[in-house]
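Q: What does the predicted 3D structure of Sialate O-acetylesterase look like?
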Amino acid sequence: MKRLLLYTACLLPAAAFAQDQPKIDSSYANWYYEGRMELYDQLNDQPADILFLGNSITERGEWHELLPGRKVANRGIGGDNTFGVLARLDGIIQQRPKKLFLLIGINDIGRGLPTEVILNNYRQILVKLTAGLPKTRIIVESVLPMNDSKLAYDYLKNKAGKVKALNEGIVKLAAEFRLMYLNLHELFADADGALKADYTKDGIHLLPAAYVDWVAWLKTKKQL
């Protein structure tokens, strides 16, 4: 009995530690994701000069109209996260774009994932992209700020510190992989660091006119 009690006592710290660890929600393959993938899988053989990869912020951009005369592929999926992007890179690589813009991470923050988990996924994404697309110019973009005063959902509010920490990690990864990093806050953030009120209706997504300014800004940065 004494040995059993001693053994149980030894297990308690480990069990308590395990309970303290944050739950990692790695899900991504909902009905919308799968529907978009059914479409994208049929388009992977089409060549692209420019490919935009990300979540709803990317998906909502009318890139092909904003960049007339260019072969543009929009590979945004609403609600996607770093787990979802990592899972669909084979199709991206198959398309062999000349230039790729990567913007992902805000949905990971929204579901409360630790920064180190997001950055680990980000690292894996860059490892696979750089290995599979050695001739592609990969541009890494910062995660956009949010505007708390316009956000309808409390779980998304007060995430500015998380956004900053994630972007700081992304900057380091871009440097490590020798990739171009673009700080979108230069364009989209107001003096307080929030998403500019005239660029958003819900505090997280961009209004159509914002994409016009985005493309113009990318051109001033000589990335388009």
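A (community wiki): The structure tokens above were generated from the sequence. The two ends are 73 Å apart (CA to CA). The chain has a mean pLDDT of 92.
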